[in-house]
Design a protein that fits this description.
The protein is α+β, with helices and mostly antiparallel strands. It folds into two domains: about 190 residues, Aminopeptidase (3-Layer(aba) Sandwich); about 190 residues, Aminopeptidase (3-Layer(aba) Sandwich), CATH 3.40.630. The protein contains 13 helices and 16 strands. The strands form two sheets. Strands 1, 2, 3, 4, 5, 6, 7, 8, 9, 10, 11, 12, 13 and 14 form a 14-stranded mixed beta sheet that branches.
């Protein structure tokens, strides 16, 4: 067998269908298997207009040594208008929806496979003006860069850090005890306020027949969320919500699960997770802004950590962004960067030069300055803005209440975990001041929790 590594480019995923099992096996054999590096997830991504818009072209690079698959790198070629000129960006297919998109290789093969991939891409540099590998961490197989032509320039640009909670506790109480004293105090106070606000319930399921109704409850929360006023939400947009309904398909590698918190029968917070191997991924979170004082978002994320512990996962991945917040939950933040190669004189290159000059002239803070707040939310939550008191959710219309009640009944008729207020209080590793009956001999007593 020849030692030479040959790279082939597939423009349709179906053309590589015969390598489906090999692609998935390579992912599992890599140093960080994940559901986003599977043939099925690539297929799902290509079906989403938001992720693979009309006019985009797939470049699926497969590196072979003889008949053996050694490397896999899914890319997307996209036409853009830059400075009024036509330009082409070649970037990672699953950027911003996956856990650190990467060149998939077996341990030990990184250097020769990376070199072969770069040789191939640079041999076709007339077909792109910017080559960009987003969200690369310190362990990326795509660095260091090879020697570049004098007609190319490169730079590395900081991206948002990636957060993972390493599950090293056997119980929620153990995790809670490891949090900072201040954070424990805030979290327990907020949970007590929430449990005292009304009848709080948790609906959770990973059952394919139960999740559609649960997802409808989840989606209904977004109209009252800050995300509905930004691109972070999907609301009633079938194209964006279709990303999550598609992940419920039986052929997808992740086992999707949805959790929804109810207050007096109305959905107030939700979390969508995907389980794969030893990791549980927090894919999307939403909560009702009108209950900001009660912090339902913190409550549902705390229950997400519980799901990771109970499910026996070794890692609860919070994916990228908002490191200032995730670190409080004991997430270990991995710095990431965008690796960029420009064609000298291209529109992308000229825009970069103009951007650098503008930042230098205006004294703008460098990109690596730590983010201490959520910029997407800051944009919609102006100082003068006021949110309704949490009691306003009690004035939901009769039609809205009846719709939610019907979906709750559908969920409860299915399979999942359905916990009432007293059961939730009993799970908490701190006093909640909830009361529930306990048996004491032949008499019934009341115990405070």
């Amino acid at each position: 067998m020849s030692d030479r590594i040959v790279v082939h480019c597939f423009y349709r995923l179906s053309a590589a269908a015969s390598w489906r099992e090999a692609i998935n096996a390579l992912n599992l054999a890599s140093d960080r298997p994940d559901p986003f590096s599977s043939y099925e997830f690539y297929d799902h991504t290509l079906s989403q207009p938001e992720l693979f818009p009309p006019g985009a072209r797939l470049w699926l690079l497969l590196a072979f040594q003889g008949e053996q698959l050694l490397g896999c790198l899914p890319l997307r070629l996209q036409d853009e208008q830059v400075l009024g000129l036509r330009a082409r960006r070649l970037g990672l297919l699953t950027a911003h929806v996956s856990d650190r998109p990467r060149l998939v290789v077996r341990p030990g093969d990184e250097q020769p496979v990376s070199a072969a991939i770069y040789d191939y891409l640079l041999s076709r540099r007339s077909e792109w003006s910017l080559l960009e590998f987003q969200q690369q961490d310190a362990a990326t197989a795509l660095l260091p860069l090879p020697p570049l032509s004098r007609l190319c320039r490169h730079r590395q640009w900081p991206n948002e850090a990636n957060g993972n909670i390493a599950i090293r506790w056997e119980s929620l109480a153990g995790y809670f005890a490891a949090l900072s004293k201040k954070f424990r105090s805030n979290l327990s106070r907020q949970m007590r306020l929430l449990l005292a606000a009304g009848e709080v319930e948790l609906l959770a399921s990973s059952d394919p027949e139960t999740m559609p109704a649960l997802f409808e409850l989840y989606c209904s929360i977004e109209s009252h969320s800050w995300k509905a006023r930004t691109r972070a939400g999907f609301g009633n947009d079938a194209r964006q919500s279709g990303y999550y309904t598609g992940l419920m398909a039986a052929d997808q590698p992740m086992q999707l699960s949805i959790q929804v918190l109810l207050l007096d029968g109305l959905p107030i917070a939700g979390l969508i997770c995907g389980g794969f191997g030893s990791s549980l991924y927090a894919l999307h979170i939403v909560y009702d802004d009108r209950l900001a004082r009660l912090a339902p978002g913190s409550a549902i994320l705390f229950l997400g950590v519980r799901a990771a512990i109970v499910g026996g996962y070794g890692c609860f991945s919070l994916l990228w962004g908002y490191g200032y917040y995730k670190s409080r939950w004991l997430a270990e933040m991995s710095e990431t960067r965008s690796v960029q190669i420009y064609q000298l004189g291209s529109a992308h290159f000229l825009r970069r030069l103009l951007g650098d000059l503008d930042r230098s002239w205006r004294g703008k803070a460098p990109a690596e300055t730590p983010t201490l707040s959520n910029p997407a939310r800051d944009e919609v939550d102006k100082p003068e803005a006021t949110l309704p008191d949490h009691a306003s959710i009690r004035f939901a219309s009769r039609e809205e209440r009846e719709g939610h009640a019907a979906r709750v009944r559908q969920v409860r008729a299915g399979r999942g975990e359905f916990l009432g207020a007293l059961q939730l209080a009993a799970l908490m590793p701190f006093a909640t001041h909830q009361t529930f009956p306990v048996q004491a001999g032949n008499a019934t007593a009341v115990q405070s929790r």
